[in-house]
Design goal:
Number of helices: 10
Strand content: 15-25%
Shape: globular
Distance between the termini: 59 Å
Largest sheet: 5 strands, parallel
Strand order of the largest sheet: 2-1-3-4-5
Mean pLDDT: 88
């Protein structure tokens, strides 16, 4: 059966170090729970899949080594805004802080193959039994004709137009950056400014507040954004 015809319980595998994740995916292939390929952290293609999935998306975030543990809770918090997240961690990693950050489950990545597959499949079943969607898609549908042509801008647009809760600029910088470093605040400001310029001729703008060195994005709004309305 062709790879694209297979439906997996997991929507996307995100890796903080793809070459270390590849052996895990090969080992798990016979269990039919994980896609055959992973995406790097910050992949616009991966986020696009998550943002357009009809049911609640499920992401496996693979953390191949202890060098990635510092600040991992911030990554989980940001990613959990667009997907349910199962985190595969090195042995002896404390799960409590990751669960508090929004992880649906935290599993040692050296868990026996069948047990790991069962726990991931159980997470998918639990998501499917939930009655309420994780995030509303009404705004994304309403503003679909306004989506930019550039793919990276499309992802930012989709994130903000389908937001079910406010986005802190620090979370966006982390989500849109690489495994090694987040996107700079200046780069995010430039990207959101370009998006705003595209939306304004249609009477739409980003809804946001800026205070104490932190910008919080709420979504899209008809008319000027919060900062401009307050001037």
């Amino acid at each position: 059966m062709a790879e694209e015809e297979v439906t997996y319980p997991v929507s996307i595998v995100l890796s903080l170090q793809r070459e270390e994740t590849a052996p895990l995916l090969r080992t798990m292939r016979s269990q039919h729970v994980l896609p055959a390929l992973s995406h790097t952290w910050g992949s616009a293609q991966a986020y696009g899949v998550l943002l357009h999935q009809a049911d609640t998306p499920l992401t496996v975030l693979d953390v191949p080594g202890p060098q990635w543990i510092e600040g991992l809770e911030q990554r989980v918090h940001a990613l959990s805004n667009i997907s349910s997240v199962v985190v595969l961690v090195p042995d002896h990693t404390e799960p409590a802080v990751l669960l508090s950050a929004g992880a649906a489950n935290v599993i040692p990545r050296d868990t026996p193959v069948r047990e790991l597959a069962s726990r991931i499949a159980a997470e998918r079943r639990w998501l499917d039994m939930r009655h309420s969607p994780q995030r509303p898609a009404a705004d994304a549908q309403q503003y679909r004709s306004l989506r930019p042509r550039q793919y990276s801008q499309q992802v930012l647009f989709d994130i903000l137009s389908s937001a079910s809760r406010p986005w802190c600029c620090h979370d966006l910088c982390l989500l849109l950056g690489t495994a090694r470093e987040p996107m700079s605040r200046r780069a995010l400001q430039a990207r959101t400014a370009r998006l705003n310029e595209r939306l304004m001729p249609y009477g739409i703008s980003l809804d946001y507040t800026a205070q104490w060195g932190r910008t919080t994005f709420v979504g899209l709004v008809e008319g000027p954004g919060m900062d401009e309305r307050r001037r």
